[in-house]
Specification:
The protein is mostly helical and 628 residues long. The protein folds into five domains: 4-199, no CATH class; 205-312, Ankyrin repeat-containing domain (Serine Threonine Protein Phosphatase 5, Tetratricopeptide repeat, Alpha Horseshoe), CATH 1.25.40.20; 317-419, Serine Threonine Protein Phosphatase 5, Tetratricopeptide repeat; 426-571, Serine Threonine Protein Phosphatase 5, Tetratricopeptide repeat, CATH 1.25.40; 579-628, no CATH class. The protein contains 36 helices and no strands. Helix 3 (44-61) crosses helix 4 (71-87) and helix 14 packs antiparallel against helix 15 (269-277). The protein is globular, with a radius of gyration of 28 Å.
Amino acid sequence: MHGREHVIALVQAAQTGDERAFAALVAGFQDVAVAYAASLTGDHHLAEDATQEAFVEAYRSLASLREPGAFPGWFRRIVFKHCDRITRRKQHGVASLAAALDVQSLELSPHDALEHRETRRELHAAIATLSDAEQRAVLLFYMGDQSLAAIAEFLGVTPNTVKTRLYSARRRLRAYMSDIEKRLDAARPSADPKFAEAVLRMIQPEALKQQRPWEWSPGIGTDVWALFCACMVGDIETVKALLEKDPSLVRSHYEYRTPLSFAVRENQLAVAELLLDRGAGGVSLGDPLEMARDRGYTEMVALLERKMSALHGASEAGEAIAERIRARDLAGMRRLLDESPELVHAGDRRTSQPIHWATMTRQPEMIDELLKRGADIDAVRSDGARPIHLTNGDYHFRGWRDVPPGVPAPDAVYRHLVARGAFVDIWMASLQGDIDRVRHLLDDDPGLLDRISDTRTGYGGTGTPLDNAAAGGHMAIVKLLLDRRANPNVPQEHIAPHGAALYKAVSNGDYEMSKLLLEHGAYPGQAMESSADTVWIAMRDRNLPLIELLGQHGAEWDIPIKLTPPLDYKRLAKTGLKRPMRILAFYNDLDTASLLLDANPSPRRRPSRADQRRRPGSRDVCSALVAS
């Protein structure tokens, strides 16, 4: 934690909008704040969550702090408020100090594990003899890494009081202090940059300061931020005005945070109801209901359950039958349906009905049993998915990971559904290679050519017909669609801002299809959410011909990657890929960086510590940037 005068200077700068100053406050107070929160919640991970939210509230409220020197005590009260919200609804059986010590997991031999358990039992017994104030003193001194004076200022007590509490605790924990110090040191948030980075991502990010769209979300950046803020404070009139101006804002997000998630987080019932009425429940990002339950917001839980039930059929009743289907318990499923026939249409919390689960788990016999009992073979979930789209699972239940060996393949389940009357849309026909069906549907409705599917799972059936044809590797359908002037760059909201057809072709290692798409104007650097871009995929697969093809069409190398033979940096530099300064720095290409700086001085900036720590050799390029 910084000295008093330095804290005052940082607060004053942060109050004028200097985000670097606020980042310095986060860096300086993160350890002591999490240590204090751990002493209140008795749970290290909840302490981190509460502290992150406290930092965000401090950022939003900093202008109201009249005396910058009072920041430590003012911030402590904000941390206390967020911890109090948690502790009022959760009862923790482990003392706060013991919980913090248990964060670091150990890999031990059976003999050492037995000894460790005995030592842990004795340590917990000793900790139980400490008062809350004594435990807090240990946490703030060793995990918070603070001086007695700094702890006293933060807690609003005298240094002598802290010294007395610490002395008393040390005396009773004398036999364990070495281990305690080691573990609390490792538990500090500052030991890993991720905590502070997460906090800084929760304040207004650069993309949402711009008067232009952010490519991964609907809406203008500043409008998205304004909507987030209005949702947090419950300003329903501003929310209405923003949605009237741009209805797509209800689907906006930044790093999986949506308007609904902010309204739920702050327990803004009226705003949450408005957003749900405008379609927010169909945005498959995060789990607002789980958040409301975790925070103990009973009215919000009731609202979400009521709305999701009315709009999408979601219910607790659907959970029991979903569990029987996942357990592959046909007899158990039959018993539930015999007792309550209406469960055949009951959606679970994510709106999956039994027919969806029978499909995702690939159980044809269950599918037939459900259809016999009146299930809808084309039942639609809140994300637009029908059973035919789910033969290989979804984001939460993945076919390649969660289905046991020996079950029918996804294509077999797909054919089973089609044979029983499932509607085959143009997106699934393209994915499955049914060119006659694609041609027939296009002849009936030419507007389907570039239409985005209503299915938003991110898996099969998502995107345009061309995206799906490329994903399925069906060259004849790709040619048919391109001959009819399909656009290879139609953006997929939240998933692929420049389209996905080329990305799919590159992922399949299909050179000829990639070449054809590029010749028809495909954006060469197509990226998929959380899945890198075309250049990175080709490098991962060490596919030099594809890398060269992308380079010939102007692709930029945007994401560093560990290079393995036959690829090396010099060879890749000859492919024609554009290499921005961050790539030159990562691979320490000082010669090219100097040429780029001579030709265009605008990239000159002082490199961040994050830039410098990525690769030791990159310091040469960083030094050149500073010197230029």
